[in-house]
Amino acid sequence: MDIERYLAAIDKLCSRPFPAEHGMSDVGMAGPGYFIAELATSHRLTTADAVERIQTAEDFHDVKEIISERLNGRWGRQQVPWSLLTLRVRVDRGEEIPEPYLTVSHDVDELNVWEVDGTGRWFAIGVADRQQDEEIRLLGTVTETPQP
């Protein structure tokens, strides 16, 4: 996994205009005020054994932490890692959660979050590894919406 390539993709995400409509973009899901980009995706892990899946998930979490350390150097120390369990509970209770947080909360357990200096945007990175029948993904999310 190429950290410099991920950082370049994050820089582009943080500076490009958001689409006017919800849907798929060249980087993943997008909509007014947000992008959810798949920075990396595993291959053929939906049918892999549990040991291989666990090792790959650990590798993705390690990459997330390396990227996070680099972003700490750019934007200052990240907020305390944000567990999305409480967000899922709030959804279950009927609370409306704005995008992109609603979508990300289905697949990611924890996000590292920063306010991107001088842009009015937030960046979050997390590993989508909750769904055993889906590939593991490293997600980068850029939004104008602060955490709910």
- Give me the number of helical elements: 4
Strand order of the largest sheet: 1-2-3-7-6-5-4
Q: What is the average of the pLDDT values?
A: 92
Determine the oligomeric state from the structure: single chain
Tally the beta strands. 7
Largest sheet: 7 strands, antiparallel
Helix content: 25-40%
What is the gyration radius calculated from CA atoms?
A: 15 Å
Give the strand content.
25-35%
- Strand-pairing-aware structural class: alpha+beta
Secondary-structure element series: HEEEHEHHEEE
CA-CA gap between termini: 31 Å
Summed up, the domain count is 1
Low-confidence stretches: none
Gross morphology:
globular
Tell me what the structure shows.
By secondary structure, the protein is of the alpha+beta class. It contains 4 helices and 7 strands, in the order αβββαβααβββ. It has helices spanning 3-15, 50-75, 85-92, 101-107, and strands spanning 23-24, 28-31, 34-41, 82-83, 110-116, 121-128, 137-143. Helix 3 (85-92) crosses helix 4 (101-107). The longest helix has 26 residues, at 50-75. The model has no long low-confidence stretch (mean pLDDT 92).
